[in-house]
Design a protein that fits this description.
The chain is 58% helix and 15% strand. It is α/β, with parallel strands linked by helices and 788 residues long. Its EC number is 2.7.13.3.
């Protein structure tokens, strides 16, 4: 079979190689030959001989079958060729498929290898995952335990915070609450969830919120902690004062997250402090009361003993009387020391410098010191080492107190010899540097004691006799404080058994001798239309009655807006403007009026403050300024200078209108201290006593309301509120001539004064406790005027 395939392939290859024609000829020859051979062979076999016809017939047969054979073979060859080509193509495809299969197989092998690697890696990853899962399970377990512990700690911390009576809260950089404790919830009447996200403006009143936001901003701007006190209000209206502390807090990376706030209710502490202060004030009041009660008879003893010393007495009587006189003076000095000791404890020592005739002061010290020394049989000498200034400005009472203490101690500790008071002065830049030296020949002071003698309550022992010094032990301590307030000091030098020398140096200004001010004469009766702006009814009543009694017509406005609406420049001759009004100041009204009108009557400021310099009022649009309450003298002078053009006739001096106080139960000096007698005398002379009584009734009606509001502001430490109410009281008191209450209220309304907070409680108590007594004095004075 294989050979046939080879022969068939050979036949096809030969046909292709020779072509159809040549192959046909060759085939024809082959077939003819074959036919001849076969014919010859068959004929020989059958017949035994070969004829020509047999050969011809064989050739013819060969030629006859040759085309058919060629055709058959050609068809076969064509089919074979087609088969071969298809087979070749198939083989090519099979080779390509084989090649592709080989590539795929290779790729498959590679993929299998890669897959094996991935499987291996996945197996390793699975093992690692199992390990990681185990670790994760351990970590989750640990975290769960940590979270449980953290939750327990958070709950415990929250319990601690909620149990704290102090306010605790957190606010972020935007000022929004981030959390708080239960105390804060009670204060704000909001739960923590409700509070989160709110700002102080959403929680507190505008006044409280502004302070809180301001302090928050200070913490944020400066990144420092801040502590201050603030009043806060509970939902039920109860107020409490808290000591608030705010501190910034940060994340672990140092980024600021906001602030933490802590607030401690110190209301009880404040109340305790107020109670202590009240106890101190009560003590002071007691000491002052006892002192004043004792001073009245004591002053009588001093005065009468001085008068008796000027009469004819025998030697024994004069000795007794000198002892009485000096003892009374010494007792008065002890009173001063006790009062000043209390003031020193509360830092309320103050000086009231006034012009002083220094020569008369030195003579007075010489006389009294001589009496003190003579009482113990000692010699006293006064030495003027230099020329002394004629007039200086100093608190003579305090200076006298210091020198009396020193001279008293010198005579007390001196048994033999005497005491010398030396005075010298040096003028430097219109200032007098004055030196007093008190030298004695007494027991002296040990060197170890010199640094102690100015301590409060310290008493020196009398040398070998080992006797305690008699006295309060506070004189030198108070004396040194007073001298230091005068810009000087006290020094001491001493030797035991030889005596001591105390040196006092002060520096005080030189002044001219103060002359009595001339009194303005009265003016002729001229009726003016006066426009007055005042908000205190009592002031209105007093001023209107005074002005109408002088023949003027008065139109009143109680607010700035009302004044601007009512005012007509053509209708009025004079405008009186109160400086402090509920809605604007008198300066604001003056400015608006000057902007509004080309022509204006005179604008005069009314103020309850002491007018030290009118330039400030003139610069702010005023033509003049008057102090309240109005006096006839002051308003008359203003009318004459600013309104009238005719000269003033001098009929009588205003001081002649002031009668002497009678039957008030107090001395003239005491009445003068409590009441403004000049204003009251002028007022009563013009309008009589009935309008004053009416004003007093209105004052008594309004005063409890003023005091109640003042007390509430005192409790809340509201400086502006205290100032405003004290100003009202000052104006109201001044309107009816309560000079003492007016002066105290002036201090209470002046927060710029030194140690204002330390003194305000005393001033308020003095107003509350003293105004009724001063009213009684005023009523007694009015009764005396009616009788006279």
């Amino acid at each position: 079979m294989k050979q046939i395939k080879v022969l068939a392939q050979f036949y096809v290859d030969l046909l292709v190689k020779l072509g159809i024609v040549r192959f046909s000829l060759l085939l024809a020859l082959a077939l003819v030959a074959l036919a001849v051979v076969v014919q010859v062979g068959v004929t020989l076999v059958l017949q035994g001989e070969v004829h020509d016809i047999d050969i011809v017939r064989s050739v013819f047969f060969g030629l006859l079958i040759t085309p058919w054979a060629v055709y058959f073979l050609s068809v076969v060859v064509d089919q074979l060729e087609d088969s071969r080509q298809r087979l070749s193509k198939l083989v090519t495809k099979l080779e390509e498929m084989r090649s592709r299969d080989m590539q795929l197989n290779k790729q498959l092998q590679d993929n299998i290898s890669q897959l094996n690697l991935e499987i291996e890696e996945r197996e390793k990853a699975e093992e690692a995952r199992q390990v990681a899962m185990q670790d994760l399970e351990n970590e989750v377990y640990q975290r769960e335990n940590a979270q449980l512990e953290l939750a327990e700690q958070s709950a415990l911390l929250k319990s601690f915070l909620d149990a704290s009576p102090d306010l605790i809260y957190y606010r972020n950089e935007k000022g929004q609450f981030s959390g708080c404790n239960r105390a804060m919830e009670e204060l704000t009447d909001r739960t923590e969830k409700q509070l989160v996200g709110l700002t102080p403006w959403d929680v507190y009143s505008e006044e409280v919120a502004s302070k809180i936001v301001e302090t928050d901003q200070q913490v944020f701007n400066q990144s420092v902690s801040l502590t201050y006190e603030q009043w806060l209000e509970y939902p039920d209206g109860r107020k409490a004062i808290f000591e608030l502390r705010k501190v910034p807090f940060y994340s672990r990376d140092g980024r600021r997250l906001g602030l933490m706030g802590f607030g401690r209710d110190i209301t009880e502490r404040k109340q305790y402090q107020d109670a202590q202060e009240k106890a101190s004030r009560d003590k002071t009041a007691f000491i002052s009361t006892i002192s004043h009660e004792l001073r009245t008879p004591l002053n009588g003893i001093v005065g009468l003993s001085r008068m008796l010393l000027e009469t004819r007495l025998n030697k024994e009587q004069r000795g007794y009387m000198r002892t009485i006189h000096v003892s009374a003076i010494t007792l008065g000095n002890i009173f001063n020391d006790i009062i000043d000791m209390d003031k020193s404890d509360r830092r309320r020592l103050e000086l009231l410098p006034k012009p002083l005739d220094f020569e008369e002061f030195v003579v007075e010290m010489e006389n009294i010191s001589g009496l003190m020394a003579e009482q113990k049989g000692l010699r006293f000498d006064l030495e003027r080492l230099t020329d002394l200034p004629r007039c200086i400005e100093v608190d003579s009472t305090r200076l006298r107190q210091v020198l009396w203490n020193l001279v008293s101690n010198a005579t007390k500790f001196t048994k033999d010899g005497g005491v010398v008071l030396s005075v010298s002065s040096e003028i430097v830049d219109q200032q007098a540097e004055i030196t007093f030296e008190v030298e004695d020949s007494g027991i002296g002071i040990p060197a170890s004691e010199l640094d102690k003698i100015f301590a409060m309550y310290y008493q020196v022992k009398e040398g070998s006799d080992n006797l305690h010094a008699v006295g309060t032990g506070i004189g030198l301590a108070v004396s040194r404080q007073l001298v230091q307030m005068m810009g000087g000091d006290i020094t001491v030098s001493s030797e035991v058994g030889e005596g001591s020398t105390f040196t006092v140096t002060i520096r005080v200004p030189l002044v001219e001798k103060v002359e009595e001010e001339e009194v303005m004469p009265a003016t002729p009766q001229v009726s003016l239309n006066i426009f007055m702006v005042e908000d205190i009814e009592l002031n209105i009543t007093v001023a209107k009655a005074l002005l109408e009694s002088l023949g003027h017509e008065v139109t009143i406005a109680m607010r700035g807006d009302e004044a601007l609406e009512k005012f007509d420049p053509e209708a009025y001759d004079l405008v009186l403007l109160d400086i402090q009004l509920p809605d604007m100041s008198g300066f604001d009204i003056a400015r608006i009026l000057r902007e509004r009108y080309d022509y204006l009557p005179a604008l005069v400021a009314l103020t309850a403050n002491v007018i030290k310099d009118k330039a400030e009022y003139l610069e702010k649009g005023m033509d003049d300024a008057l102090s309240k309450p109005l006096s006839v003298k002051a308003i008359t002078e203003v009318i004459q200078r600013l309104v009238l053009t005719c000269p003033i006739d001098e009929d009588e001096e205003m001081e002649d209108l002031q009668p002497e106080p009678e039957n008030t139960g107090l001395s003239e000096d005491m009445v003068n201290q409590l009441l403004d007698l000049e204003m009251l005398s002028s007022y009563v002379e013009i309008v009589g006593t009935k309008p004053v009584y009416d004003s007093i009734a209105m004052f008594e009606e309004k005063m409890p309301e003023y005091i109640e509001i003042l007390d509430s502001n005192m409790t809340a430490k509201d400086k502006d509120g205290i100032k405003f109410e004290a100003h009202k009281i000052k104006g109201a008191a001044g309107s009816i001539g309560l000079k003492h209450i007016q002066q105290v209220a002036q201090k209470a309304q002046s927060p710029e004064l030194p140690a204002w907070w330390e003194n305000i409680n005393d001033w308020v108590d003095e107003i509350k406790d003293g105004y009724q007594n001063d009213l009684n004095v005023l009523k007694g004075w009015l009764a005396s005027q009616e009788k006279s």
